[in-house]
Design brief:
With 545 residues, the protein is mostly helical. Among the domains are: 86 residues, no CATH class; 105 residues, Serine Threonine Protein Phosphatase 5, Tetratricopeptide repeat, CATH 1.25.40; 78 residues. The chain has 26 helices and ten strands. Strand 2 and strand 3 form a beta hairpin. It binds one DNA strand of 10 nucleotides through helix 7, helix 9, helix 11, helix 13 and helix 15. Pfam families: PPR_1, PPR_2, PPR_long.
DNA sequence: TGAAGTTTAA
């Protein structure tokens, strides 16, 4: 135990009110004892948001004390200020990329000043870490290319294309694609698939289809595989109409296969246009394909969504009669919907029916079962299923743990929730934001501020960053528990991160502060909200120039 | 890495 540590956050630079020193939204934090802040490296500056008075903060025993600094991981690189980063080059490059850059060229220049060498693993890690910051990612990408001993892998190119597409930098993306064309074997169907997905996601359906039309220009074959990829992308991006148009245009040139029809059936079922799905099914027959379990399951899912369980039943029977029995996916859908419709006994009956038909349950099925049992308040039964899983050969995954933890939190089984988090870690299952969100909410409700701090720190250690929704849960929870100072601190952190708080969060906080006559804090929150809204406006005007 | 299913807060 160390005397009176205080939490400091590392905040180095701002751009339009945005904190730049976190990667993928992860804010790097460090801990130091009161009166020892001069021992902090110069890149560490305490922020007002984190200047908490948690004098009794307990340092978790799994942390090491390194030269006056508390680092959440075994190794702490005090020179470059990275936590949990063992690879020195990764640390150096991360540190540089945390700067304020307007153009990729600036990033290249900054990286030229360091003596790190690019490697496949370095580029891979950095592209993942900066996948939401195309300027940094592309700068690093360009810098790596200047080294004559290094060549980007096809995967690195694909990742870069994907990042540029995700952030809607389509001109730059196309420039990179042209560069890829010059090297043989670089462009693959994976590249094309990423491009089509990002274009469709941005509402540029015509462009996505154009990629398919011109795919031979890139040395690829415009076959049924490629067409199915496009159709699937269009359906998943909610433009099944465009998928249908492409299908009609090309079906005489490129003979469709069973996948083609299933993709369209699923697309139409998801869009609640069952008539269209049925015509595709007929067309499927005309092309000599029988509907398979996947085709039927799409319809089953649609009926389930309408809670039309009579139709579900008759279709299940029809499937059996047609020699196409339902499989584990079909059963999962039906059971899940029955459970959600509060027909828990009928849902359990599906499990029995499944066993009778010797259909083997898998992890997703068990996850669904655990979910509906928990929602019905049958936590003990859910726990039994959790134990049954390992015995039956399907191991729990992240969804299993997330579901169990959320249920325990909802039913005020705090210890059990924290125990599950521990079990999750022990089993080597990687936690994510959905693991922590209910736990954080629970801590706010119970006013467990120390545990809240511990969990937040745990998240930093695991590279899991808070998003706006999670921040909102915390702020709402703290308001309800009348932990108003804490609530204000989190509100400030949201704005510092460049996020814009929801109006409901803002209104709630202002209301509570007003009721408690905390005028100064109220004004501060109002200023912060204004700052957040203004910085968004200025960002917008910049992007339209 | 060719088609269907499970956890989501304000």
């Amino acid at each position: 135990m160390f005397p009176s540590p205080r939490i400091y956050e590392v905040i180095t630079r701002f751009r339009q009110g945005k904190v730049l020193n976190f990667c993928n939204g992860v804010m790097y934090k460090c801990f130091c004892n009161v009166g020892e802040s001069d021992k902090l490296p110069d890149w560490v500056k305490p922020s007002s948001a984190a200047d908490s008075q948690e004098d009794d903060f307990v340092i978790p025993s799994n942390m090491n004390w390194v030269g006056g600094l508390k680092a959440p991981d075994e190794k702490f690189d005090s020179k470059h200020g990275s936590f949990g980063i063992v690879d020195n080059d990764v640390a150096i490059v991360t540190r540089i990329l945390m700067g304020d850059f307007a153009m990729p060229e600036d990033v290249v220049q900054a990286l030229n000043g360091c003596d790190s060498c690019p490697s496949n693993s370095l580029v891979d890690k950095m592209l993942k870490r900066f996948s939401n910051d195309w300027v940094c990612a592309f700068g690093l990408f360009k810098w790596a290319q200047t080294n004559i001993r290094y060549k980007h892998s096809a995967d690195a190119y694909d990742s870069m294309v994907d990042i540029l597409g995700k952030l809607k930098q389509f001109d730059i993306m196309w420039g990179l694609v042209e560069e890829m064309v010059k090297v043989e074997g670089l462009i693959s169907m994976r590249t094309m698939s990423k491009i089509m997905r990002r274009l469709a996601g941005a509402g540029r359906w015509v462009d996505a289809v154009a990629v398919f039309r011109e795919v031979e220009r890139y040395g690829l074959t415009r076959d049924i595989l490629c067409m199915n990829l496009l159709l699937d992308t269009l359906c998943k991006e909610r433009c099944v109409e465009h998928a249908q148009d492409v299908f009609l245009e090309f079906k005489n040139v490129i003979p469709p296969d069973q996948h083609t029809f299933n993709i369209l059936i699923h697309g139409w079922c998801k869009a609640r246009r069952l008539d269209n799905a049925r015509s595709i099914m007929e067309d499927m027959g005309d092309h000599g394909f029988l509907p398979c379990v996947i085709s039927y399951t799409s319809f089953i899912e649609a009926y389930c969504r309408d809670k039309d369980f009579r139709k579900v039943d008759s279709l299940l029977n029809e499937m059996q009669e047609n020699g196409c029995p339902p499989n584990i996916v079909t059963y999962t859908i039906v059971m899940h919907s029955l459970g959600k419709a509060k027909e828990t006994n009928e849902a359990m009956e599906i499990y029995e029916k499944m066993k009778r038909n010797s259909c083997v349950p898998d992890t997703s099925f068990f996850n669904s079962l655990i979910y509906i049992l928990s929602k019905a308040g049958r936590l003990q039964d859910a726990h039994k299923i959790y134990e049954e899983m390992s015995r039956s050969g399907s191991s729990p995954n992240v969804t299993t743990y997330n579901t169990m933890i959320a249920a325990a939190c909802e039913h005020s089984q705090e210890n059990s929730a924290l125990k599950l988090l521990h079990e999750m870690e022990e089993s080597g299952c990687k936690a994510d934001l959905k693991t922590y969100a209910p736990l954080l909410k629970m801590c706010c409700r119970k006013k467990w501020i120390k545990v809240l701090s511990y969990l937040l720190n745990d998240m930093v250690r695991k590279d899991i960053s808070l998003d706006l929704g999670t921040y909102s849960i915390i702020i709402h929870g703290l308001c309800k528990s009348e932990q108003l100072e804490k609530a204000c601190q989190f509100f400030e952190e949201v704005v510092l991160k460049g996020l814009i708080p929801f109006n409901s969060t803002f209104n709630l906080l202002v209301d509570v502060l007003e009721r408690k006559k905390m005028e100064e804090a109220k004004r501060r929150v109002q200023d912060l909200m204004m700052q957040a809204e203004n910085s968004e406006k200025s960002c917008r005007s910049v992007s339209f120039v």
